[in-house]
Amino acid sequence: MELDIANTSQISTSNFTPSSTLGPPDLRDGYDLPVYGLDTGRFYSLHVPALTCIFLSLISAILTITLSFRKIPRRAFFDWTKSERFIVYMAICDGAFNVAHSMDHLHIATTKSHVYPASLCQFYGVMLLEFIMAQTFMVNIVAVNAFTLMIFNKQLKFGKRDWRLLLWIFGFPFLLSMIALAAKQFGPNGSFCFFDGVNGELAQFLLTTLPLSVILIVNATLYVITWAKLRSIEKHLKLSLGKQSSGSKMKHAAVRAMSLFVLAFIFQWWAMALFGIWVFANPGSVPPAIHHTVTTFSNVGGIVNLGVYLLIRKRVQYQGSASSDQSHSTKRSGMKETSHTDL
Questions:
Q1: Could you tell me which residue ranges the G-protein coupled receptors family 1 profile domain spans (predicted)?
Q2: Is the pTM of this model over 0.90?
C-alpha cells in the first residue's frame, strides 16, 4: 500500500512538473492574444482617442472632396492641376481607410473582444493594407515628381486619365493584399485588425514596415533636396533679376504644393513605421506609448490633408491670376503659353 501511494505521488508529481515549466500554451493566431488594455485599464484610452481622430478625419476627407468639386465646377476632373487631383486621391484613400478602421475600432470597443467572424477581421486588414500602401506609393510619386520638376524641369507622365498612376497606387497594393489574404496573414493584433499578431509579423514587416520606412526616408531626402534647390533658385533670381517670370512662379508654387503632401505623409505615418519596426524586432513588448501614438497619428490623415487642400487653394487662386497675366504677355510677344494643368 505504501508503495502504491509512493508510486501515485511520483506519477502525479511527474505529470504536474511539465505543465508548470512549459507555461502558457503556444499561441495559434491573433485570436489567442488578449484584447489590448482590458487588464490594464488602457482599453478606452486607446479606442476613444482613435475613434475621435478617425471620425474627424473622415469628416475632413468628405469635406475635402466636396469642396474640391464645388470649387472647380467648370473643368473636367482630369483637366484639374496635378496638385488638385492628388488631393482628391488622398482624400479617397483617407475616407476608405477611416470607414474600415472606424468599424474595426467600434466593434472592439462595444464588444470588448476581437472582431468576429474571422473573415470580417481579414476584410478590415485588407482595406487597411490597400489604402495605407496606396497613400505610401502615391506620396512617393508626388515627391519624385516635385524633385524632377525642380531639378530637371521635367515631370512624370501619368498617362491618359492618370491610368499609370492609378494602376500603381491602387492596383499594386490590391495585389499585395490578395497575396497576404491567401496566405492567411490578416487577423487581430490585440488592438485592431491588420496583420495577425501571431502569424503575420514577418508579412507586416515585408509589406508595410519595410516599404513605409524606406519611402519615408526617400521622401524626406527628396523633400530636403527639392526645397534647398527651390530656395537657392529663388534667392539667385532675387539677387540677379529682382523678379520671377509668371511661368517660374507657377512651377515653384506647384513644387511647394507637392511638397506639402510629403510633409503631411511624414507627419501621419512615422509612428506606424516605428510601431512596425518595434513589433518585428521585439514582438510582445511594444510600450503602451507606442500603441497610443500609432493609433492617433495614423488616423489624422484626413485632417492633415484638408489643411493641405486649403493651402493649395490659395496657390491655385494665385496661379489663376498669374495665368491671366501670362496669357496677356504671351499674346503680345507671340510666345506659346504653358498649360497650368501640367503643374
A1: 60-309
A2: no
